[in-house]
Design a protein that fits this description.
single chain, mainly alpha, 0% strand
Length: 323
C-alpha cells in the first residue's frame, strides 16, 4: 500500500504503476476495498478507466468470482478490442470455469496471436487453452498446449507458473487413470511452489500430493503433508483450499483407520462442511463436503445422520440417488 501511495504521488499522470501495485495489494488481501485509498488519488477517468477495470477482472477471476468478472467484461466492450493478453487470459479462465468452452478457446487463441505477449502471459494462455481443450474432449490438443506452457515456464524460470502447470498435468493424468504419473506431477508442483517461495500454493499442492499418497496407501507421509498444509491454510481463513484439505484429511483417516481414525475422520469432516457452508451458496465443494461427512458418519454407525447428509449431497448435486 505504501508503494502504491508513493507511485500515485510521484506519477500522477501515469497511473498504471500505482494501479498495478493496488491490484497486487488486492490480490494478496482479497479485499477490493483495499485499493480505494489509492484510487481516490486519481480522477474518475482513471478510476473507471480500462486499466483498473481490467485489474478488477483479474482479481475477481483469482478469487473465484467468475460470474462477476464476466459481467464486468460484458459491461465494458471497450476492453474487448484492446490487445491485452492478461485480461484475455483472465476472461478465458472465467469462461472455462462457467462451462463456456468455445468462447474460452477463442479468446485464448486471440491472446496467443497478439504480438506483444510476455513469456509468462504466453504460458498462461497455453495453460488455459490446455484446460479447456481437455474439457472439450481434445486430449492431444490439450497436451500440446500444456507442453508449450511447460517449456516456457522451465526456460524462463517461472517457478510459480510451473507449479500451476504441473497441477494441471496432475488433473489430466487423473482423468486417464495414470495415477503414478499424476503423483510425480503433483510432487513436481509442490517443489516448484517451494522454489517460488509461494507457501500458500505449496500447501495446496501438498494436499494434492497427499490425496494421491492416500490412494497408494502411504498414509503417514500423507498425514504429515496434510497437517502441515492445514496449519498454514487455517491461518489464511476460510477458503475453498482449506475445505479441500479438510476433506482430504477426513478421507485419509477413514481409509487408514489408525487408532481413533473413524472419530478423527468424523471431526475433520464436520469442520470441512462448516467451512464450506461459510463460503456461500451450495456449490460442488459443499456437495463434496456433505458426501465426505456422510461416509464418516456411516463409519461410526451414525446411519440416520449419514443418510440425511448423503441425500442432501444428492439434492445439491442434481444427481440421481444411484449416481
Amino acid at each position: 500500500l505504501r508503494l502504491a501511495r508513493l507511485a500515485a504521488h510521484l506519477l500522477p499522470d501515469d497511473p498504471e504503476t500505482a494501479l498495478y501495485l493496488a491490484g497486487r495489494l488486492v490480490q494478496h488481501s482479497r479485499r477490493l476495498a483495499d485499493a480505494d485509498e489509492v484510487l481516490a488519488r486519481f480522477p474518475e477517468s482513471v478510476r473507471l478507466g480500462p486499466v483498473w477495470i481490467a485489474w478488477q477482472i483479474t482479481w475477481m477471476m483469482g478469487s473465484g468470482q467468475y460470474a462477476g468478472a464476466l459481467s464486468l467484461w460484458e459491461s465494458h466492450p471497450e476492453l474487448h478490442t484492446l490487445p491485452d493478453p492478461a485480461t484475455f487470459y483472465s476472461v478465458a479462465a472465467c469462461l472455462t470455469q462457467t462451462g463456456q468452452f468455445e468462447q474460452a478457446a477463442d479468446l485464448a487463441r486471440r491472446g496467443l496471436a497478439l504480438n506483444e505477449v510476455t513469456s509468462a502471459q504466453r504460458a498462461s494462455l497455453h495453460n488455459v487453452s490446455s484446460i479447456v481443450r481437455a474439457l472439450m474432449g481434445q486430449p492431444e490438443a490439450a497436451e500440446a498446449h500444456l507442453e508449450a506452457a511447460l517449456a516456457l515456464a522451465r526456460e524462463h524460470g517461472l517457478h510459480q507458473m510451473l507449479g500451476a502447470l504441473l497441477q494441471n498435468r496432475t488433473k489430466n493424468l487423473e482423468r486417464t487413470d495414470r495415477f503414478a504419473a499424476a503423483l510425480t506431477a503433483a510432487r513436481g508442483a509442490f517443489q516448484a511452489y517451494a522454489e517460488a517461495g509461494d507457501t500458500v500454493r505449496q500447501a495446496n499442492a501438498g494436499v494434492l500430493v497427499a490425496g494421491h499418497l492416500t490412494e497408494f496407501g502411504q498414509y503417514q507421509e500423507a498425514e504429515t503433508l496434510l497437517l502441515d498444509s492445514l496449519a498454514l491454510l487455517e491461518r489464511q481463513g476460510t477458503s475453498r483450499f482449506l475445505v479441500v484439505a479438510q476433506t482430504t484429511l477426513a478421507t485419509l483417516y477413514r481409509d487408514w483407520q489408525p487408532p481413533h481414525g473413524a472419530v478423527l475422520a468424523l471431526r475433520v469432516a464436520r469442520g470441512a462442511l462448516e467451512q464450506a457452508r461459510q463460503l456461500g451458496p451450495v456449490s460442488s465443494l459443499t456437495t463434496f463436503a456433505l458426501a465426505t461427512l456422510a461416509r464418516a458418519e456411516a463409519a461410526v454407525g451414525e446411519l440416520e445422520q449419514a443418510t440425511l447428509h448423503a441425500q442432501e449431497a444428492v439434492d445439491a448435486s442434481g444427481l440421481a440417488p444411484d449416481e
